[in-house]
Design goal:
Number of strands of chain A: 0
CATH class of chain B: Mainly Alpha
Largest interface: A-B, 46 and 59 residues
Distance between the termini of chain A: 58 Å
Radius of gyration of chain A: 25 Å
CATH superfamily of chain B: Sodium/glucose cotransporter
Low-confidence stretches of chain A: 62-67
Mean pLDDT of chain A: 77
Distance between the termini of chain B: 57 Å
Mean pLDDT of chain B: 83
Oligomer: heterodimer
Structural class of chain B: mainly alpha
CATH topology of chain B: Sodium/glucose cotransporter
Radius of gyration of chain B: 22 Å
Largest sheet of chain A: none
Number of domains of chain A: 2
Order of helices and strands of chain A: HH
Strand content of chain B: under 5%
CATH architecture of chain B: Up-down Bundle
Helix content of chain B: over 70%
Low-confidence stretches of chain B: none
Shape of chain A: elongated
């Protein structure tokens, strides 16, 4: 098959293509899924970072623009 | 090749990369931004960045060259890279890593594991292992790019190394991961298009897919006698099972690198940079195609180069390359492809090296700054950014020194060593952290220590390639390796260290006190 006699080798060749196809199909099917908690999480993180920033400002007295 | 044209192309390219890196730098406002890009990265950027980081000059030049000797069997590694490195990594590991990273507000891989197990020791120990082991990998990636520059421009290998190192250091220190991810995405795109061209052009050159493979099958009797004696049966067939050649191909190259990808700190941190699972779902599509084309092309072309060189020079690739596997791909590109492609390919390698190196140095910098220094000395994050940046510079210097002293044909081996250590040391605790609530801090620490110690012991005293090169076993015990009975001297450390570390993690977890329920609830919040 494909000019290769050893099934262990052409098998790998085919598996590479099939696994890439699996990734493509999975990506297409789930293209718009999984963003349900996005805003909530981002808000949480902004809040955490604000708190962290406040704490650091208190400790250091300054906050450098470039960090 | 015209040096003037090349210089102009490289300068324009570096300006574009520099500009993209600058945009990233401008948006890097605080320590959190520097570490995980504020968790708001576009899926295309994320997937391309993951792919470009994952695939480096080591894969293209080093493993491509390795395929010149080991043959198309290396496609098993591509299969694992896609199935394990993309599909399983994104769908099963990535989503949990992202959510747990969010729940614990973790910024680095060691920090995630450490917070999950509530252990500072894990954080600075993991940070230290990353900082110490990463230079081997970074060193061989630098070598990969420098070998092509050396072959193409006929300039001194050492000068090429220094130039590469300086360029990468500047932009990682300035940009942090956001700059790194934007430039990675740009570089990933260039890599994808050029490798696709290389694949098609090589097949066309050799008369089509089936003819090219058939020609390679027909010359199986020409494998070097040394390779044949150790088990090689040709470029389109697996080596004799259980032979040294088979063990190296299967345990070191295919399993070591194929599984190793799951526990790569510089890759795992990328999951923490996306805002939702949707981005990961989309990234699976892009990542799968990326890996199929880039390493897939490198290995197929590496193996097929034998047919080309036999036709044109009446010699097989390893002979044409003077015995140095790392030179097969550079010589093939320069002699078989149109001249303009050599320019493009140099950009590809520059891109591949820069994207991987920058992430490696970034992981190394944060390992020493945030995970080691900040955790151990309880210092503020403000100061740790400075240490992180200093860590990057030190990482570059060590990689550069390794680049000077490492021997030829080392790229694939060096990559495999790093991946092997990562998988044995980090994978058991990483899997348990994500999937097993009963796993305890003591279990994770035991697995981390056993995985690291057994890997190092095996490399220094048992695995012949490294043990003989290091000479420690010879100096201490008067014998190159402690176990002479085959196949042990050719069995990769991971085959022994990974199961042992996993077993120890599980057993110690089961006999120690279960973790606090409340802490687990926080870690697994939103994870089914």
């Amino acid at each position: 098959m494909l000019g290769i006699n050893d099934p262990w080798i052409w098998g790998a060749y085919i598996l590479c293509i099939l696994s890439a196809l699996l990734c493509v199909v999975y990506g297409i099917i789930n293209w718009n899924k999984g963003a349900e908690h996005e805003e909530e999480e981002i808000m949480e993180e902004i809040e955490w970072h604000e708190k962290e920033k406040e704490m650091e400002e208190k400790e250091l007295g300054i906050w450098d623009e470039e960090g | 090749m015209d040096l003037l044209i090349l210089t102009v192309i490289i300068l324009v390219y570096l300006l574009v990369v520099g500009y993209v890196g600058y945009i990233g730098w401008k948006r890097t406002k605080n320590s959190a931004d520097y570490m995980v890009a504020g968790r708001k990265t576009n899926p295309y950027i994320m997937a391309m960045s993951y792919g470009a980081t994952f695939i480096s000059t080591a894969a293209i030049v080093g493993f491509g060259g390795t395929a010149g000797l080991y043959g198309i069997g290396l496609l098993w590694l591509v299969f694992l890279n896609i199935f394990v490195g993309i599909f399983i990594a994104f769908v099963f590991f990535g989503k949990r890593t992202r959510k747990m990273g969010h729940n614990l507000d973790a910024m680095t891989f060691p920090e995630l594991i450490a917070r999950r197990f509530d252990s500072k020791f894990i954080q600075y120990c993991t940070g230290l292992i990353i900082f110490c082991a990463m230079p081997i990998y970074a060193g061989v990636v630098l070598i990969g790019a420098a070998r092509f520059i050396e072959t193409t421009l006929s300039i001194d290998f050492n000068i090429a190394l220094v130039i590469m190192a300086i360029i990468v250091a500047i932009y990682v220190v300035l940009g942090g991961i956001r700059g790194v991810m934007y430039t990675d995405a740009l570089q990933g795109t260039i890599m994808f298009l050029a490798m696709l061209f290389l694949l098609i052009a090589t097949y066309v050159l050799l008369g089509g897919v089936e003819n090219a493979h058939q020609a390679l099958t027909n010359i199986s009797s020409l494998v070097p006698s040394q390779a044949a004696a150790t088990g090689s049966t040709g470029w389109t067939s697996m080596p004799t099972m259980g032979s040294p050649f088979w063990w190296t191909l299967v345990s070191t190259i295919i399993l070591g690198v194929g599984l190793g990808v799951l526990a790569q700190p510089q890759l795992a941190v990328r999951f923490m940079t996306v805002k939702s699972n949707r981005e990961l779902n989309r990234a699976v599509l892009i990542g799968g195609l990326f890996i199929l084309i880039i390493p897939g092309t490198a290995y197929i072309v590496g193996a097929l180069s034998n047919v080309y060189f036999l036709k044109t020079l009446n010699q097989i690739s390893i002979v044409v390359a003077g015995g140095n596997l790392d030179k097969i791909i550079p010589i093939f590109i320069n002699s078989a492809m149109p001249e303009w492609f050599s320019y493009v390919f140099l950009l590809v390698l520059l891109a591949a090296a820069m994207s991987t190196l920058s992430s490696q140095f970034h992981a190394q910098g944060t390992a020493i700054g945030r995970d080691f220094y900040e955790t151990l000395f309880k210092k503020d994050t403000h100061k740790s950014i400075l240490i992180t940046r200093a860590g990057v510079i030190i990482g570059v210097l060590i990689a550069l020194i390794l680049g000077f002293i490492l021997p030829g044909s080392v790229i694939a081996q060096g990559t495999a060593i790093f991946f092997g250590i990562c998988v044995s040391a980090f994978l058991p605790m990483f899997i348990c952290a994500l999937f097993w609530k009963r796993a305890t801090k003591e279990g994770a620490i035991s697995g981390l220590i056993i995985g690291t110690v057994v890997s190092l012991f095996w490399l220094i005293f048992i695995h012949k390639k490294e043990a003989a090169a290091l000479g420690i076993s010879k100096a201490l015990f008067g014998t190159e390796t402690l176990i002479m009975t085959m196949p042990w001297p050719v069995v990769d450390p991971l085959v022994v260290a990974l199961p042992l570390a996993l077993a120890v993690t599980i057993i110690v977890s089961l006999i120690t006190k279960p973790p606090n329920e409340k802490h687990l609830e926080k870690c697994f919040n939103g994870i089914n």
